[in-house]
Amino acid sequence: MNGKNFRMPARRLATVATATVLAAGPAVLAGAGSAHATGDEGRASAVVLRTGLDVSLLNKTVNVPLAVSLNEVQAPQSAEKTALTARLDGVDGGQAFSVLAAEVATAKADVTDTAAVASTRLAHARLHVPGLPLLSLVELGTVTSEARCEAGKTPVAESNLLGEVTVLGKKVKVTAGGPTDVKVPGVGEVRLDLSKTETTTRTAAATALELTVSVNPLDLNVAEVEGTLTLAKATCEAPPVQAAEEPAGDPEPAGDESGVEPQGAPAEAGLAETGGNSMTPYIAGGAVALLLAGGGAVVVARRARN
């Protein structure tokens, strides 16, 4: 077997290996360092008004629930409505009555890959309950709430109350330090909680005003109204932090399949391992020169003999 027959299979093997790597390269690179959605997403919701009231009627032994929502949205949505009416059987002959009237009543919610945000705004609003058609349960100026949850950041919840608040015809000063109780003899009692906020590592919730109501209107066939009302609430949950895409590294150089060692001077660190130093290449070069010179002299001597 001569040298040509020995080297050809090695070249063919190297060619096949190279073609295999090039064919597999796109598939390998596509799976390396890429981020994929896990199905876990951010969430956001907002509501201008939510009621959870039980209305007791004078001539019946049952309670009639009043559970309504105004502008309740979940991301990605926005809504605006300035008036909400409701009907209850047995109350005022089944006629519709106004639960909330406002100049502005908006709710917005939005979710992206990096953040979830919700906000509400209610301005110049009047809130009514069954049995009190002429007297507002609450009148207020402007209330706002916002919840912002960004991936990898601390969630933020904020709510504000601007302007005066009137409860059952009485102007009151509401503070964020604790609940405010308002009692009106012969009418009822209302407890107000202002600017309630809650946050965790990924969630936030802000409520501008929450009312606990116990009213005895004794009118329109209504004996008692009890329950809660929530004004301007916003909630959010942050989306997960997206894994950063890692650039595909350069492939390691493949060894020479033919078995031929790469040419070039070795590094000095390699020389130290064999006992050499920086002078070794020069010494080796001189030895090779002497060897070639000696070989030439031998050839000349043999020709002279012949």
What's this entry about, in short?
With 306 residues, the chain is of the alpha+beta class. It has helices at 3-31, 268-273, 280-305; strands at residues 43-57, 63-66, 69-70, 73-74, 77-80, 83-86, 97-111, 115-127, 138-150, 156-167, 170-172, 180-184, 188-199, 203-215, 222-237. The radius of gyration is 42 Å and the shape is elongated.
Mean pLDDT figure: 73
Number of strands: 15
Shape: elongated
Strand content: 35-45%
Largest sheet: 8 strands, antiparallel
Helix segment tally: 3
> What is the CA-CA span between the terminal residues?
34 Å
Helix content: 10-25%
Radius of gyration from CA coordinates: 42 Å
Class derived from helix and strand content:
alpha+beta
The ordered string of helix (H) and strand (E) elements is HEEEEEEEEEEEEEEEHH
Low-pLDDT sequence parts: 1-39, 256-304
What key phrases describe this protein's structure?
elongated; disordered N terminus; 7-stranded antiparallel sheet; alpha+beta; 43% strand; 3 helices; 306 residues; 8-stranded antiparallel sheet
